[in-house]
Structure formats: C-alpha cells, structure tokens
Amino acid sequence: MTSIASVNQASDNAEKIVIDDKVKAEGNESLTVVMSLSVKWNGALFPIDIYEGMTVSEFKEEIQTQTKVRPEKQKLINLKAKGKPASESMLMTGLGLKNGAKIMMVGSIDEDLVAATTVPDELPEVVNDLDIAEDKLLSVHQRQDYIEKIEKRVREYELKVLNPMRPGKKLLVLDIDYTLFDHRSVGQNGLELMRPYLHEFLLSAYQDYDIAIWSATSMKWIQEKMKLLGVSTNPNYKIVFYVDSLAMIRIEAPDYGVVEVKPLAVIWGKHRHYHAGNTVMLDDLRRNFLMNPQNGLKIRPFRRAHENRGTDRELLKLAGYLQDIAQLDDLSALRHSRWESYRPGGY
Prior knowledge:
The chain is α/β, with parallel strands linked by helices and 347 residues long. It has 13 helices and 13 strands. It folds into two domains: 4-28 and 125-341, HAD superfamily/HAD-like (Rossmann fold, 3-Layer(aba) Sandwich), CATH 3.40.50.1000; 33-107, Ubiquitin-like (UB roll) (Roll). The longest helix has 13 residues, at 144-156. It is globular, with a radius of gyration of 20 Å. It starts with a helix and ends in a 22-residue tail after the last helix.
C-alpha cells in the first residue's frame, strides 16, 4: 500500500505540472470570475458567475445547467448591446453589466423534462444545506418515482470514459466547488484557489480507487477547472470520467423542499462493476447524496482560500482514511460521518 510519505515524494512531478506556465496560460484567464449576475425565471433567482472571456452563448449554457431551459428557448429580456439583443458571440464583459445585476428570462423547459423538473406548488421553499440530518437521508432513496428518474438517466445520459477502468479498483466520486477548489474567491491562478494537498490526495487515492469527478455544473466548466488545477494533465494519476449536472435528478426532501441530487445509481447502472459496496462520494453538500446516503462523505467546505490554505489538512487526513477502508471487501456498512474516528478494524 502506498504511504502518504511516498505519495509526497511521487508528487514532485505533479507539482511541476500544476505550476507549468502553459497550464496557467490555458486555464487562468478563462476561469477568472469578474462578476456575478442573477437570472430571474419562473419566480426564482439563479446566480451565475461571469468569467473573463465568457460569451453570451456560454452564459446561456450556464443558464441551461441551472434551469434546464435550452438556449434556443431562452429569451433574455434585458441582455442588450446598444439597445438590441446581444448576439451569441458577444462577450458578457462588453455589455456594460454591473456586478449583481438581474437578467429577466422568459422560456420553457422541453416537454420531456417537465415531469422531472416541475416543482409542486404546495412544497416549501428550499433551504440551505445547514444541514440535512442523517435520519432524513434514509427516507427518500427507495421511492419508486425517483428510481424511475434514475433509470431514465441511465438510458439517456452519455457517460464518456476518459481513461480505462481498472479491474478490482473501488470508485471514488469527487465534487469540485468547495471540495477541491474555492470557486468564489479571486486569485491570480489556480494554485491560489486549489485546496491544499490536492495532488497528493489524488495520487494516494489512485492506488486503490478509480477516480471520477461529478459537479453540479456544465461539462465545459468541469473540463476547464480540471485543466486549471492541473488535474487533467497530471501523469501520475488519471480521471476515469466526468459527470455533469445533466445526470442529476430533482427530488423532494422531507422538511427541506425540492433539491437536485447526484444519484450514484446512474454510474452503477452504466458500469455494473461499480456498486454500493465499492463506491465513496465526497461532497461538501450532504443533500447531494440523498439517494445514496451510505456512500456519501460530507467534506468540510474549503472557502476563503487566502485565509485557510495554510491550515487546511482535510484532504491529507482523508487520504489516510481512504487507504484504510480500501482494504475492506464491502464499504456499504461504514458510517462515513464518523470517518475521523475510524481506525483499521473499526471505529
């Protein structure tokens, strides 16, 4: 088994990849947040970060990620250039918008998505993930209507394999924002916003796990962030596939309203050698694993990178935990909420 010490030695090459000038040049500008806007649609506000170089077309793709309204069905009332509707190729930063501005949208969801995305009128407003209690996590994942939504994702969602799946390896599914990367702070490059020990953690996990990335954003931004952080170009470990927001489903959580979640059964249905007994998901939002509560581990969110990067040791400690449990044949009986108390042989 690879120790953390040997991982630190082996990560020298990884560090060189991260600080490579080419990587910074390719990823830095495209993900520099310059302002945030809100899109008002259907009585709700959807916050969207605007990056340097973002076009109107890419802005519409982000709207689709959050609302499921396709770009061709979006009518953005006050997104204009010189009094005329902004064209697809125009830069968002060139439209004279102020930080915090609201964009009004008219548009409808495709009919085949209505059943999966319509919020019943009588449901309470969604509250923040502060925090869905463990007993609530166990109450929704067996509902037949949600299982049918998952089956639809298994049939229709395209999961593109980036690197070979390795026989006998378990599966580690990782969130990005606030898990690996502080996406709200502003930095000169990805190194300033990357969670400490990211590459050491991924290299350690790679010894026992195939690694997947699942983010509640569009595929474009997953690819950009992985490039920015030097993950997609690192020669010492490989990511098996990316999963974006289109694989998520919307459910009603008791006492919490309607939330979007990441059902691991979408992955399990497509690649059946992965299953509840050999999969772990790390996410800073517990609600994301409502459909697979036994497989979710809530990581402390990494925020205010400039203040906390000198003291954050979360990934370093989690690397040890994942090494320890990788020796087990079945992970489904573990209580990941107590991961810090785990020792080989039990809690």
